[in-house]
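Running this now, will post back.
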Amino acid sequence: MDDTPRHVQEIYRRQIMALTPEERLRMASSLFDTARALVLAGLPPGEEPRRALFLRFYGHDFPDPAQRERILAALLPPSPD
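Update: finished.
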């Protein structure tokens, strides 16, 4: 979706690029932390958070169901011995 006028995009880009690399990294990290918290807050009780986060953030990057299932299996919590 691209509903932002070009001139507004250019203003935003200039403002972001005026920040130091450290400030941009902090901003990106903060945005990721917020997105993660929102995903976790929306999980139904009992859903495994690591798997849910993977699917929400990266699931579309792995269109092959078998590959996605292998990754999800690796994200299962270790079984108690």
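Residues 21-41 form the longest helix (21 residues). More later if anyone needs it.
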